[in-house]
Amino acid sequence: MKRIVFFLCTLLCANVLLAQDFWNGTLHYYIANGTATVYGYDYSAHPTNIVIPSTVTYEGITYSVTAIGDYAFEDCWNLTTITIPNSVTAIGWYAFNGCSALTTVTIPYSVTFIGDYAFNGCSALTSVYIPNSVTSIGDYAFTSCWSLTSVTIPNSVTSFGDYAFGWCHSLTSVTIGNSVTSIGDYAFYNCESLTSLTIGNSVTSIGGSAFQNCSSLTSVTIPNSVTSIGQYAFGWCSSLTSVTIPNSVTSIGKSAFKGCSSLTTVTIGNSVTSIGGSAFGGCSSLQNVTCLATTPPTLKDNNVFPNPNTATLTVPCGTLEAYYTSDWSMFFLGRIEEDCSGLEDAEFAELSVYPNPTRGKVSLSQAIEKIEVIDLSGKTLQTYENANEINIEALPAGVYHLRLTIEDKTTTRKVIKE
Prior knowledge:
Helix content is 6%, strand content 34%. A hairpin with a 2-residue loop joins strand 5 and strand 6 (61-68). By secondary structure, the chain is mainly beta. The longest helix has 17 residues, at 2-18. Residues 1-18 have low confidence and may be disordered. It has a 15-stranded mixed beta sheet that branches. Strands 19-21-23-25-27-28 form a 6-stranded parallel beta sheet.
C-alpha cells in the first residue's frame, strides 16, 4: 500500500513539474514537455496589437514558444494585428475565434497545423497567407471571414476541413494546391463572390455542398484525379454555364448541380455509373448534354434532369438503343443522338441524306452496305443492304435515326418523317 501511495505522489509531482502556467506581461503561458504554449491574455488590457515572443523565461529557465493554444485569443474584439513568431508550429482550436477587428495575419513557415475554428468570425480579415509548411487546416478554420478576398491553399496541405472557408462573402479567388486530396463538405459554402477557382490535380473527392451557392462562379475545371462529386457540391451556382465531368469520376451526388440555372452545356465522363437524384434539377437553360459512358449511368430518381427539357443528348456510337431503352429516354425523348464522328472513315466524308424532312423516300449520296431505321425507343424498324435509297412512307410521322455501316465503320443520321 505504501508503495502505491509513494508511486501516486511521485506521478503527481512529475506532472506538476512537467505542466505549469504563469503570466508574462499580458500573456498567459502553459509549460509542458519543455516548451511554452500561449493560452490566454489579459482581457482587462483590451489589447489592439499583440506580439508573441519566440521565447519566454520562467523561474530562470527559457522556453521556446511553440504553440498558440485552444481559445487563446477568443473574442479579443479590439485586436487588430497579431505577430506570430517562427517558433510556433500549431495554432489551436478557436485560437482567434471571434476576433472581429483583426485585419491581417501572417502565419510563419514553422506552422504545420491550423485548428478547428482558428480564425472563425474574423470578419475584418482581408488577407491571410498560408505558408507551404501547413499540412492541415481544420473545420470552420476561416468561416465567416467576410472581408477575405483571396485564398491560396499551398501544396503542403493534404486536406482541409468542413466549412473551412464557408460564408467568406468577399472571397473572389481560390487556388487549391496539388497535394490536397479531398475538399471538405461545405468548404466554400456561400462564397457568393467567388469567380475564379483552381482545383489541384490530386483532389479525389469534392465534398457535399463544397461550392454550394457560389453564385458568381461562371466556370469550373474538375481535374482528372476526382472520382466522386458530393451532393449539392455545386448546387445553385447560378452563373455556371458549362461543366465537364472528367473520365475519372464514377459517381455524381444528389443535387450536385441543382439550380445552376445558367448551365447550358454538360459533358459527363465515360466512367460515371450513377447520377444522384436531382443532380441537374432546375438547370433550366440546358441545351446540350453529352454522356460518354457506353453503359447508361443509373439515374437515381425522376428528377435528375429538368423534365420536360429541350436539351439534346449525345451518346457514344452504337449505344443509341441502350439509352433509348433506359430511364434517360424520359428526359430526352426524341433528342438522343449518337456521336460516331470518331469512327467515321473517308467513306462517310461526303455522305448526305435527302430530302430531310421527308414524306416517304430518302436518298443517300452513296450506296451503304447496311442501313437500319431506328425509332426513338431504340427499336430497329427496317433494314436495308447495299442500298442508296429507303422508303419510310409507312412509318408514323416523327423522328428516326439511320444507322449506316460500311466495312465495320458506323455513323448515324437523323431523319424527320412528316
